[in-house]
Amino acid sequence: MEPTTNEYKKSFKKGLTIVAVIIFVPLVLLPLLNWFMGYHGYEKEIYRRNSWGDVSESKYREAFEKKLHFIAYTEVDSIDFDSLDFFIERGYKYGYFSSAKSNFDLGKTNYPYQVSHTDRTNHNLVVYHILNPSAPDSVGEHGIVHLKNPKLSDTLLMSIGAFKFIDNKARWDSIGYIKVFE
């Protein structure tokens, strides 16, 4: 007994459905779940962000307020300060579905502004630490200075630390200071 045309159609539809599911799940459903779980799983849209001294990013996000001046005093000449920037920007969070968008709703905060500075200057292996944390309105995580108004009311003094060999041991050592002011 040979299969009928209806049986061929049923088996063809069943095979087509299996192929469609095999294509749909890995090519559409899994990437969509990965994007959703990856972005929202890390809660990128919850935490306050900083542009880390990138003026163009701050302007792109419409967070930039004004540039600050600074004077650097160092023991070494090898640090390139040409790429170092200090400026005031509005605090922001990433957008709900995109880290390229900015959300300025910070909830209940008394400090809607922040001082942004370049984290690494032309790959110099230096770090900056705030020495007078009482000068700004507030100092948040990672040494980010938070302000009530887009104005730096007092000079901000920061140390420059670098990785040095002292007594044949690798240690972080202060190699200079930076004064930041309006």
Per-chain topology:
Layout: H1 5-41, E1 48-49, H2 55-60, E2 64-67, E3 69-74, E4 86-90, E5 92-94, E6 102-103, E7 113-117, E8 126-130, E9 138-139, E10 145-147, E11 156-166, E12 169-181
Antiparallel strand pairs: 1-5, 2-4, 3-12, 4-7, 5-6, 7-10, 8-11, 9-10, 11-12
Radius of gyration equals: 27 Å
Largest beta-sheet details: 5 strands, antiparallel
**Residue fraction in strands:** 25-35%
Helix/strand order, N-terminal first: HEHEEEEEEEEEEE
Shape: elongated
Using DSSP, what is the number of strands? Answer: 12
- The figure for the number of domains is 2
Q: Runs with pLDDT <50, length 5+?
A: none
For the residues shown, what is the average pLDDT? 81
Termini, distance in Å? 93 Å
Keywords: Membrane, Transmembrane, Transmembrane helix
Transmembrane segments: 16-39
How would you characterize this protein structure?
By secondary structure, the protein is of the alpha+beta class. It has two domains: 42 residues; 134 residues, no CATH class. Helices cover 24% and strands 34% of the residues. It is built from two helices and twelve strands, in the order αβαβββββββββββ. The strands form three sheets. Strands 2-4-7-10-9 form a five-stranded antiparallel beta sheet. Strands 3-12-11-8 form a four-stranded antiparallel beta sheet, with no helix packed on it. The protein has a three-stranded antiparallel beta sheet with strand order 1-5-6, with no helix packed on it. A hairpin with a 2-residue loop joins strand 11 and strand 12. The protein is elongated and about 95 Å long.
